[in-house]
Amino acid sequence: MTHPPALPPLLHGLFRELVAQGVPIGTRDYLDGLRALAAGYGSSPDGQGERQALVRLAQTLWARSDEEHRLIARWFAHIPATPADLLAAVDATLAHLDAARADTPGTVGTATPAPPTSIGSPAAAPGGHTPDNPAMAPGDDPATPRARISFSSVQEGTGLPVPRLPLSPALGEDYVLHPQALIKPRDLTVLWRRYRRGTRGGPRTELDIDATVEERCRRGLLLRPACRPRRSNAARLLILADTSPSMDPWRPFLVSLTESLPFGRLARAETGYFSNLPRRQLYARPDLRDPQPLGDVLRRFNGAGLLIVSDAGSARGYLNRRRANQTADLLDELLTHCPAIVWLNPMPRARWAGTTAELIAANTRVPMLPLDATHLLRAIDILRGNK
């Protein structure tokens, strides 16, 4: 199969510049730009002011703020290429997509693609595509799996056809391409409030009804009501969070985890950070600053609940028996200070096989659970003593 012509350098360069500047646009937005150009948008009827028309098109499709509008305008101000060159490259690219689709066996639809039409006519079907014709990615091997993209007739916003997947790609796992909260901060707060160890202490300010009734029955009169100290939550929680490079995808969750602790109404809660394995010191900050001896932290939280958040080598699929043995020795030491310990692994359980995490989960007395809302609830129950 012949290779497709190069993507339009002007449009592609602008797209990459916007992505590099943090503008939230993706493949769908880029396809919208290609199809808009092929449909005749971005050019003026009299051939004058095409650059301004192209700038307005790019701003309409890809800009959502004044700063993004200015970024696009500055980009075009330094580009000497003419819109006519860009539109010709777009037409050639879309024509090649049609040819690749028609020549590839197993694709949906066998109609011969129509020849490229004039880009200046808005009524022409862009690149020979029809709403029912899916477009394949150029250069794909017919024997390899692919996801087909079809341009449906649904009109949204700019009035352009919206690319959709007729069939979902067959993937063994789900991949999230946009940042999402692993567990919402509100849900974390509710979970922390479930971790309770009620005790009474302080001044007697709460009415004790049972004692008051008993005093009235015993004496026959009541001089003053019986009171008792209020009940408070004496639960303490220590979290040890791994901030090694393999844990980078879960850094936002660790931030939410720490920020939610003050709302849990715990007697005391603290987060200590380490890299790969907690050794003789912990750190008060995720960037591994402000070290403090591990022994001092354990003495402050003697008898408290302990949560460890780490992938234990499963994110990269590593098997390190030395690390597993060192972790087992450390957990035995931690159990002398914190009788209730739970290990939370952000990787799915199926990814533990053949890694250090599998050895740690099998050869220690500390339960290892996947990190999600359901298993975090189970972890809280274990810390409360419900084995």
Description:
The protein is an alpha/beta fold and 387 residues long. It has 3 domains: 9-164, no CATH class; 185-197 and 234-383, Rossmann fold, CATH 3.40.50; 202-232, no CATH class. It has 12 helices and 12 strands. The chain has helices at 9-20, 27-38, 50-62, 66-77, 83-103, 185-194, 209-219, 251-260, 294-300, 321-337, 356-363, 373-383; strands at 134-135, 149-156, 160-164, 198-207, 227-233, 236-242, 268-274, 281-283, 291-293, 305-309, 340-345, 368-370. The strands form 4 sheets. Strands 7-6-10-11-12 form a 5-stranded parallel sheet, with helices on both faces. It has a 3-stranded antiparallel sheet with strand order 1-2-3. The chain has a two-stranded antiparallel ribbon with strand order 4-5. Helix 8 links the parallel strand 6 (236-242) and strand 7. The longest helix is centred in the N-terminal third of the chain and has 21 residues, at 83-103. The two termini are 61 Å apart. Residues 1-8, 105-159 and 162-166 have low confidence and may be disordered.
Question: Characteristics of this structure?
Answer:
387 residues; disordered N terminus; three-stranded antiparallel β-sheet; Rossmann fold; 3 domains; alpha/beta; five-stranded parallel β-sheet
Compact summary:
The model is unreliable at 1-8, 105-159 and 162-166 (pLDDT under 50). The strands form 4 sheets. Strands 7-6-10-11-12 form a 5-stranded parallel sheet, with helices on both faces.
CATH fold descriptor of the largest domain:
Rossmann fold
Instruction: Report the helical percentage.
Output: 25-40%
Q: Cα-atom Rg, whole angstroms?
A: 31 Å
CATH class of the largest domain: Alpha Beta
Largest sheet: 5 strands, parallel
The amount of beta strand, in percent, is: 15-25%
- What count of domains describes the coordinates? 3
H/I helix tally: 12
CATH architecture of the largest domain: 3-Layer(aba) Sandwich
Termini separation comes to 61 Å
Give the uncertain stretches in residue-range form.
1-8, 105-159, 162-166
Order of helices and strands: HHHHHEEEHEHEEHEEEHEHEHEH
The strand count comes to 12
| Net shape | elongated
What's the overall average pLDDT, rounded?
A: 75
Physical arrangement of strands within the biggest beta sheet: 7-6-10-11-12
Report the structural category. alpha/beta
